[in-house]
Amino acid sequence: MGVLSQLSGVIAGIIGIIFTIFLTFIVMEINPGNEKMQKISKAIQVGARAFLFSEYKILYLIVFAFSLILGFSNSWIMALSFVFGATLSVLAGFFGMSIATRANTRTANEAQSSLARALKVAFNGGAVMGMTVTSLGLFGLGLTFFLTGGDTIVLSGYAMGASFVALFARVGGGIFTKAADVGADLVGKTEAGIPEDDPRNPATIADNVGDNVGDVAGMGADLYESYVGSIFSASVLGALMFDVKGAVFPFLIAAFGLISSIIGIIIVNISIKEKENLDPSKMLHLGTYAANVIELIIIFVLSKLILDTFQAALVITLGMIVGILIGSITEYYTAKKPIEKLASTATSGSAPLLINGMALGMESTAIPVILIGIATIVSFSLLGLFGIALAAVGMLSTLGITLAIDAYGPIADNAGGIAEMSGLDPKVRERTDLLDSVGNTTAAIGKGFAIGSATLTALALFASYIQVTGISMVDLNDPNVFVGALVGAMLPFLFSALTMKAVGDSANIMVNEVRRQFKVIPGLMEGKAEPDYAKCVEIATAGSLKKMTLPSLLAVFSPIIIYFLLGKVAVAGTLAGTTVAGVMLAIFMSNSGGAWDNAKKYIETGKYGGKGSMAHKASVIGDTVGDPFKDTAGPAINILIKLMSIVSIVVIPILMNLFE
Amino acid sequence: MGVLSQLSGVIAGIIGIIFTIFLTFIVMEINPGNEKMQKISKAIQVGARAFLFSEYKILYLIVFAFSLILGFSNSWIMALSFVFGATLSVLAGFFGMSIATRANTRTANEAQSSLARALKVAFNGGAVMGMTVTSLGLFGLGLTFFLTGGDTIVLSGYAMGASFVALFARVGGGIFTKAADVGADLVGKTEAGIPEDDPRNPATIADNVGDNVGDVAGMGADLYESYVGSIFSASVLGALMFDVKGAVFPFLIAAFGLISSIIGIIIVNISIKEKENLDPSKMLHLGTYAANVIELIIIFVLSKLILDTFQAALVITLGMIVGILIGSITEYYTAKKPIEKLASTATSGSAPLLINGMALGMESTAIPVILIGIATIVSFSLLGLFGIALAAVGMLSTLGITLAIDAYGPIADNAGGIAEMSGLDPKVRERTDLLDSVGNTTAAIGKGFAIGSATLTALALFASYIQVTGISMVDLNDPNVFVGALVGAMLPFLFSALTMKAVGDSANIMVNEVRRQFKVIPGLMEGKAEPDYAKCVEIATAGSLKKMTLPSLLAVFSPIIIYFLLGKVAVAGTLAGTTVAGVMLAIFMSNSGGAWDNAKKYIETGKYGGKGSMAHKASVIGDTVGDPFKDTAGPAINILIKLMSIVSIVVIPILMNLFE
């Protein structure tokens, strides 16, 4: 293999970074709007930054402690790559979110003149996130690969760094955003009777901050780890099968996927033109499909050239198809006919809505699991474990553009909030709402890729664990393995319980603070005095940071405890148990939550009595219950599964060296 | 082994049947109360019988079809034992419920004179259920064992018959009881504004019928299958380790457990004396503990005498301790401090109550799973797979008395309803309420035994499956096995979705029928005309029967489909996946449901504003959501797990013969 191939990740990463800087300039040169808008946007920026800094403080305490242990017990290079992987993730999340919190007010401002212009800013703001995450992820992992000659142990340190940050960011951000959301709604809307996003509500800035730290920074860190994890495991398994060619191949796929994403992003920008009845979903779809088609063509060429077989390309094609199908199923359950039926049950009250919504989420696990099963079996029969890992890489290779669309939604959402708070023309809000709703639908493909790739990557990491520990088999007929699997299956439930309780507790503290401010700040309700926004941000920050550590440490220490009690084979059982139960719980919670959210929105379009009706009240309860499901516990479980795997890959061999 | 030992199950079964007849006479000779009470009780009896007959019709259609397939493809003796196992379960459920529906009015009548007398009838009514289930179960399995010389294949047919009936009875009864409950409440209480159990409500008889077919007959069939399943798997695994001694040992344990239960029941009857401040829980506990202590002493003697080791006794002791601990944990989460905290969240509305209730249920999976893990590992290290199966038999050996206490609750509950409907002195209702609440607490031990034994039996059945199919290992590193496990983990979610949706749909039809009757029957609201109770019973019957078949067939056909697609080893993966995910889901759903129920009751004692307060309204929603959790989906999952295992044990070897 030429040096160029081995450096492909680094080169593509650098190209991506340059393109990101270019995109950033495009976004930043847009007029950020009037003083009021800028002030609101600034408050959101400051709050979000404050939260991230506090989060990083705790995170780095744990990261450094862990890296010291790694350094002393194993190797300092690995410890370094661990910190490196974590730091690039932190940078990606921080930078992406910084631009997102600046794109929001610009989107609102552009929406005053036209939908097309607003679409362009919001999309480019999201694209910065997408490109930052993929460029930094690929650059860092590629550099580590190149410098160490593809050393599995050092690479696993990098991947673990990514997983660490992802879990903290998802859990911390998830708790923050829902605590602020519930706190703002319960006191502001229900008790004080002021509208949503009203500047008199002390928690309103915290609420908008939450959208950014949860939906933008949290999601960024999440997908950074998926991306890195899939490339890492494919590279390790590829090396076993095709030697250095196999190890490099996933990097090449990712590198060209990054370039394809850039092309897709450019296509979206070119195709957005001023016209009547602009349909934003067309351009977003065009860009996504173009990127994937270009990537696929390149993959077929690479597959033949490098591995001398089309099977790798077939596996990746299959992965992409399955990802798109899972996305469609997810969309079907959370946005199509089932939602209309679900919304109709709200007319009998919240209990039927809740029962049916949970049934819907549970039912929605069936087809995705079968699709993943098919992808697994076929990939394995074509290319062994390497095939499974490659299918995941294929799904995530165009993450640059799919994440752009994911992150574009919250930007449009935030823009709507700013438009409302600063009293812009209602037409502006209409436009941002349209952008937001289009984003939700177009994001379905990205969601499908995320679910599918997470499960396949978990499978690949499971295989890597078996390989690094030298286990010959994981026999379920061995009671240690079965008990390991039982305990493993329990962990996602316990983890979800802890995160959901954290949301409840933090929301409670927020409620009390908002009540306090309404009482003690004179002139607040009359709009003469300003609320103490920062205090609410502080409270949400403190609450979520205090509560995020325990569930995160659960992921880190469970495999270690199982190792000492039941041995390394039982750890494999635990990983399998966590994976199979966790995947179901994650799909169930995400889709139930999404379904309740959309059932509420459907009723708000005037169905079943519309806003203010009994059905609407019931649907608000459903939506509130669904919030921690879909934005806190659900998505964090995917990271839990992978973090446990990667910790096992890193730590158990070290423990084996020390104790066996 | 002497013939007497080999016949121990049959002999104990016959003794149990004689004792049951004796108990039945004791219950039946009590005065059933005045005409009105008898009329109500009669209506419940007729409705319950009508439902069971319709259910059995469908059930036998499927049982006969399946037995024909078994007969033609394998052996007619096995087909016969399958029908035999199913029929004895049907008889046990039917007879036990018949007495329960007669004990209710007698309890109400006795409660007019004293608490002690009411306690005696209610307990003896429950004891009939407990003794019928254990006597018939042990007699039938023992007879099959004796006649076939312990043939595994034929015995597995018997166990499958038990599982078949259990799933249908649990699912069908579970849908019926909740459809009627919700239907009666939504229209009667909320729309028409008449009190609970009011005779003018057309669905009120259906509601009481539901308690009997769900909580009594459904639970009876459920525990019949647990009992039979545990003895069967222990016998099969015992034969592998100790030859005929090992095969007979579980029957001896069960036989002496049955005798111990009789002694316990007699002790309860003797210790109930007329006195001030009678505390019923003391007598119930006394009987339970006495039965278990006697049984344990016998087990230590038998263990040494027959197997020449105390290890079997140690394993069973461990099983009992773990069962009691799981029961205490369950009680802690659903009745102690966590409930007070949960109830407090209802003051902020139903959404926080629902979120926290779900978190509570998910958290409550942790300790039971760890306890089961300990029991598994220790039992295995002492006596191998036989040890695991024996621990389950130990927990269920005194099922006669623990089930008596389980079934006594619904009888006291029904008695309260009859007292209310026929306008007896409020003091009567107070007494029956006290009996009911004591029953709920004392039943905790039984619940712990049920959860613990179900998981251990599932493990033992898993091992039996591996043994009968001659698989050498079930390697999770084989993608077929992992995919099997993924699909297996999905099944309990899909199954729960189907059953919960069935409750919702059937409740809907019921609501419409009650509304219709209020409209078209003149003079109904004035009490001048009688509602058409039978029609409501019919509707709940039709609805639940139509909906019970699909989820039940899911359990039967999934392993077969997996076999054809992925092979016999993947089926083992599926069973493991279903077990580990299903156990968590079952504990979560049961405990969340129980917690919401008790949080509502706690608020109704006057806490947080008491009845009619905002918190109470929220808690009613929580309770309604929890109903299908704890009474339909939750308990049925345990049977799903075991039915899938037993179907695999029976069917896969047949398919292997045909196709391999």
Automatic annotation (TrEMBL), chains A, B:
Give the E.C. number(s): 7.2.3.1
Q: Where is this site: Determinant of potassium dependence?
A: 443
| Top-level lineage group | Bacteria
Cofactor(s) required for function per UniProt = Mg(2+)
**What reaction is this protein's catalytic activity?**
Na(+)(in) + diphosphate + H2O = Na(+)(out) + 2 phosphate + H(+)
* GO molecular function list: diphosphate hydrolysis-driven proton transmembrane transporter activity; inorganic diphosphate phosphatase activity; magnesium ion binding; potassium ion binding
- Provide the alphabetized UniProt keywords: Cell membrane, Hydrolase, Ion transport, Magnesium, Membrane, Potassium, Sodium, Sodium transport, Translocase, Transmembrane, Transmembrane helix, Transport
The stretch of residues making up the signal peptide is: none
Q: Which GO terms describe its biological process?
A: sodium ion transport
Cellular component GO terms, alphabetical = endomembrane system; plasma membrane
So where does this one cross the membrane?
6-30, 50-70, 76-100, 121-147, 153-171, 248-272, 284-303, 309-330, 366-393, 449-468, 480-500, 548-566, 639-659
Membrane topology qualifier: Multi-pass membrane protein
Chief subcellular location equals membrane
Oligomeric and partner information: Homodimer.
The record ties this protein, via PANTHER family, to: K(+)-INSENSITIVE PYROPHOSPHATE-ENERGIZED PROTON PUMP (PTHR31998)
What protein name applies here? Putative K(+)-stimulated pyrophosphate-energized sodium pump
Q: In the UniProt record, what gene is named as encoding this protein?
A: hppA
